[in-house]
Amino acid sequence: MRSKNMRKVFKIVKRESDQENALKPQSVYDTTPGAVERRVAVLYQAIEPPVINGVSKPKKPGGYRDSGADIAYVLQKAGTSIVTPAENPNSSHEDGWCFPDTETGVLEAVSRGATHLWANTILFASHPLQTSSELSQYAATLRVVGQPPQLVEHYDDKNFVNDLLRKDGSFHLPRSRLVHTIEDALFNRLRLPIVAKPIRGRGSHGVRLCHDVKTLSKVVDYLLEESSPVMLEEYLEGEEGTVTVMPPSSTNPEYSALPIVVRFNHEDGIAPYNGVVAVTRNSRVPSEQERELTPAYEEIEKACERVAAKLEMTAPIRIDVRQFSEDKTSKFAIFDVNVKPNMTGPGRPGREKQASLTALAAAAVGWDYPRLLQEILDSAHTLQQLRSMNIK
Q1: What's the rounded Cα separation, in Å, for the pair 202 and 198?
Q2: pLDDT-derived band at 32, boundaries 50, 70, 90
């Protein structure tokens, strides 16, 4: 059931020199004599995202401390050295496992010996990881699991990404438009039903399917109070899925899609936020037989790899897709690119049933949660490299 790009053999890559190594992803399995022990510190979201072009992205309650604790605990259990703000954090609680992503928090993690930072947070161009002069002295060697902050600032804008992909000409996307007023939404002869959503959203926050003008007016009015403009998007009637794309790493030089995860049990046409409904209750990986009967699955996986390459992503991304119609031969359209996918997973006491869409996909290729985290850690880049990346 695995697409051919996932039938790759992961192996340790020999380093040509220390200088070259500093600009490449580094294998967590590297046993080269003299190699520095990897000490990982996980960051959570403590900083309120800034208003960008008049639009703000809602901060997640808790700042991803739950998934951050999952990552730190499971990596530690798997044998990776973890740096934590608390001396012996309680595995049953999320506190004490992660450092805040403030400049002070990041510097504390580094001062405690962290060689790798796992940026389990929302990044942007003014984030300390990008701008801190105090961190500059470590930039050439300090490694980060995460996206380039300057790129994320652009790619968190759904309309910006859609326009970028449309200009490429090789991707299928739903029709959409931006509206700045309720009048724009009501008097442009838009075809109903239609999906209304913020252009800088988080999960399913604010996303609504509007069947009539009255609902559309109410939803747009609510979203405009949060931020303007609002995106109105063609409603896709077919099967929904999501594709995680792994970035290049020291063991795999290409962008590689994990198998598609299909979504079901929608609430009024929209997949509910996984903080409300566990993904194991409304998501699954298609069987090998289903994949053989639906060539569109592998086709969209390959398209998602091209998206990740075009955006130059340095950490996993998750791309939400949906078929234009209920016909199994229908093309999938890309309707949302998530540069910071949820990374919850089982391991800590009381978290046995926790899973993310990415973890479900990874399980289909034989990766349990610890293996998935190790593969992601294997893609860490130097802070210097991430800081240098911006829109070309």
Answers
A1: 9
A2: very low
